[in-house]
Amino acid sequence: MKALQKTLVIIACLILSTQTIRHAYLIWFQPRTSVLDRFDKPLKNEIASATSLDQLVSKYTPIREEVEKIKAGHRAEDPKSSFRDEIDTEPFKSEMELKQAIKDWEERTKDIYELRFYWSIGLIFVLAGLWVYRRINSWAGLVMLIIGLSEQIYWTFPSFMRESTKEYDRLLRYKFTFSSLTILVLAVVMIGINVFREKTKVQS
User: Fold this and answer.
1) Burial call 86-116: b when 16+ CB within 10 Å, e when fewer
2) What pTM was computed for the model?
3) Which is it for the CA torsion 137, 139, 144, 146, positive or negative?
4) From 111's CA, which of 71, 73, 96, 175 has a CA 20 to 30 Å away?
């Protein structure tokens, strides 16, 4: 069993250290500017500076109303108008970008909730697993520990999307924090089940 435990711990340490470093990079070191920003920077800055979903909605509402007025006018002239040729023109372009930003914000809020919930479930499994390992059955306890740590590792896995909202930054900070906490949890598990403690040889 000790060989299996050591292998699992080493793999978990490798994954956690790698993803925690990536989170730190995305939060503090990742370049966030582009030479193309000069062409669409005003709207991009408005999206990036929004501190709440309500702010994005307030920016989106008047543009959406303007778009609907234009569509209504076009439909009055041609009921079969599809507006495909106007997607890359204003205000259609800004309306689409703000709409996507709102959807992204809502998705990241959902991701944060899921992260907190499932990481907590993982912690419950880890604590229960430690108790079962030491008091009842080591194999049953090990299974519970694997389930708990797997939950925590999975839900703190790096985000590969690139977004410019405050809620995305908040998700990154949550993932960095919970990934760091998972390293501490793993350290407690290592101590609790004596993974790397070598048996002392009895001298004759």
Assistant:
1) beeeebbebbebbeebbebbebbeebbeebe
2) 0.84
3) positive
4) 96
